[in-house]
Structures are given as structure tokens and as C-alpha cells.
Amino acid sequence: MGKNKDKGKGNKAGAAGKPSSVRELLRVGPGFDLGEVDPRRIVAGPDDKETARAEALALEAEVTWLQERLFAESKAGGKRRLLVVLQGMDTSGKGGATKAIDRICEPVGLRMTSFGAPTKEELRHHYLWRIDKALPRAGSIGIFDRSHYEDVLIVRVHNLVPPDVWGARYDEINAWEKKLADGGLVFLKCMLHISREEQQQRLLDRLADPTKHWKYNPGDVDERQLWDQYQEAYQVALTNCSTDYAPWYVIPADRKWHRDWLLSRLVAETLREMDPQYPAMTFDVPTEIARVKAS
Ligand code: AMP
Ligand code: MG
């Protein structure tokens, strides 16, 4: 299936008017079934690329301002920080999604970390060790391209550790996330959901373009054969680990511009809700103006 084939509008929620909250629309709740999420669906917002791109970019000024407030808050001892976790099948667009967030954020205070197969050193440690090390500092924003969820995704699909070991990780991840959330870390966990057909098209696109060959990994085709096992592993991870303190959001990602629109909204909504505050002044402004003038 070509990506230009169906320009249909999808079964858009709340056709007229503004979406109330993208987080509400995408959140994994009770009874969630990944198989029922249409990766081509337009969940809310513009149904054309140009408007969607423009609307996403228009969030930049506000997001930058919120980011500055978050940073300012940390200067007075605030512990809050934001972590965007990106998961998805190969070619689902984790790199593109990172760029979309980057476009609306200040580079200062933004840090991206990619997690590939663990190194020898990482394998000698607990699987959360390398994740802990990469967490954003107070006042800043982190983006994870893959994450500790690989330890219940690829690890589960390939039984890289025995089932009782990966099976215990869901509760362990929840407890670890709870502790971090209690300490001021706000999670924005996003699964970029593409269809099997779209993945095939994206792999073929990479092969058709010599400048994209570097993105092509023959091993992706082997993982692709395990599509259903991966979908099952995602279903279990999403439902076991979507909690009040660290919910999962599933982003229909066959259309890149809609993926980016949704992601920009999610980031903006989350920062708005965090409502970071400039620290209280430790000096009297009129007194200081007088002192400056007299100096
Ligand atoms: P890429 O994102 O294309 O650079 O690929 C990274 C690869 O590393 C993917 O195949 C991941 O599934 C794999 N990977 C990431 N984390 C782990 C992990 N904890 N254990 C095993 N493989 C992993
Ligand atoms: Mg890859």
C-alpha cells in the first residue's frame, strides 16, 4: 500500500471544534486493544499536511516559554523535568518524531538518547542502569529513542532472558517509574503505531534511495517476520504499564505530519499542565531599582 493511496479523512473524533485534550484521545486505558487502533486514523486537528505542519510549528513560542519557566523553576530547587519516551516498530518514525519535538523546543535543556542493543558493559548491570544514567536533569526535557521498554519488547519476543525474568519486569518498571514520578519526573510515553503495510513501504523507500541506504538494516526484515509477536508484546507492555503516574499514549503514525502534530500537542499540553513557575524573588524590586540607579 502506497502512502499516497488513501487520502481519506479517517474516523476523526469530534469532527468540528477543537480537540479537548489530545492526551485524553490517545491515552491507553482499561480495555485498550492495540489491534483496534487504525494507524492511518486522523484523531483530531487538521486533515491536511500543510495546516498540520503550520499548527505544530505555531506552538514553538509557547513551548519555548514554558521550557524556560521549567528551567527557572529548577534554579530555585524545583525537581520537575519531562521525559518523552518514544517506542515503535522499525521505521515507525522515532527519529522524525524527535525532530518534530526539537523544532518547537529550545536546544538548551533538551537532550536526546538512543538505546540500541546493550553494550558488554551495560549487560553487566541491571537493565535500568543505563536508563537511569540518561534521565533528564531537573528543569530540562529528555527524549528517549527506545527505552527500558525494549527489555519487555525485543527481549520478550526473542526470550533474551528467561520468561520469568522478563515477566517480572512490568511490575518492576511500574515501581521504578512511580518513584521517579514522585520525585518530579513527568513521563510522556508515546508508542508510534504504524501498519505492517506502511513499514513495508518505508523499507522499500529506503532501498530505492541511495541517500537512505544508511537507514536500512537487513535485520529489520527479520524482525518484521515477527510482527504479530511484537504487537502482542506491545499490547502487554502498554496495558500493564499505563498508569496514572506514567500513562502510555498510542499515536497513529502512518501519516508523518499527523504523528508530528499529535506529538507537538502532547508536549505542549503536558508542559501547560505542569505549569512551571518562575521562582519567588529573594529581593525587593523597588529597592533594587533604587540601588542600581544610585550605583
Ligand atoms: P535502531 O533503533 O534502529 O538503532 O536499532 C536499535 C536496536 O537495538 C533495535 O533492534 C532494538 O530492538 C535493539 N535494542 C534496544 N534495546 C535493547 C535491549 N535492551 N536489548 C536488546 N536489544 C535492544
Ligand atoms: Mg532501525
Structure characterization notes:
The structure is a single chain. The chain contains 14 helices and five strands. The chain has 295 residues and is of the alpha/beta class. Helix 4 packs across helix 13. Residues 1-16 have low confidence and may be disordered.
Q: Briefly, what is this?
A:
Strands 2-3-1-4-5 form a five-stranded parallel beta sheet, sandwiched between helices. It has 14 helices and five strands. By secondary structure, the chain is α/β, with parallel strands linked by helices.
Molecular shape: globular
What gap, in angstroms, lies between the N and C termini?
A: 72 Å
Counting helices, strands and paired strands, the structural category is alpha/beta
Helix and strand run: HHHEHEHHEHHHEHHHEHH
Backbone CA Rg: 21 Å
Number of helices: 14
Portion of residues within helices: 40-55%
Ligand roster: adenosine monophosphate, magnesium ion
Mean pLDDT equals 93
User: Which percent range describes the beta-strand content?
Assistant: 5-15%
| Strand runs, count | 5
Low-confidence stretches: 1-16
Arrangement of strands in the largest sheet:
2-3-1-4-5
The major beta sheet can be summarized as:
5 strands, parallel
